[in-house]
Amino acid sequence: MKSIKSLVLQIYEYFRKRWIRVHFQKFKSFNKCLSYNKMAKLSNVVPGAYKFVAAYGDANLNRRLLEMGFVPNEEIIVIESGKKKIGIMVKIRGSKIALNNKVAEKILLKRK
Q1: Domain 38-112, architecture per CATH
Q2: Of 19, 52, 59, 70, which one has the fewest beta carbons inside 10 Å?
Q3: Residue 91 pLDDT > 90, yes or no?
């Protein structure tokens, strides 16, 4: 069982590195790639309508976000962009959700 788990982790790491190499070699940085593809981190956006692209966190965070309604191409309305201590208020599927800046840093959105 342990060997299967290590094999799956090796395959995952291979494809992750390959994806990064293919997508970011042109841009030389993550931020340039985001601006080229008109994407932004939730912590950096201004109030308005966006589409959810992805969340980069551990399994627990991804599960919690999925339960709140963060699914790909779901419309998200940023009500209030956060200041340093307050966080960010978003509206998704008719519910208002407040997220702290740590979580918002791991969420990618695309301008609608």
Answers
A1: Roll (2.30)
A2: 59
A3: yes
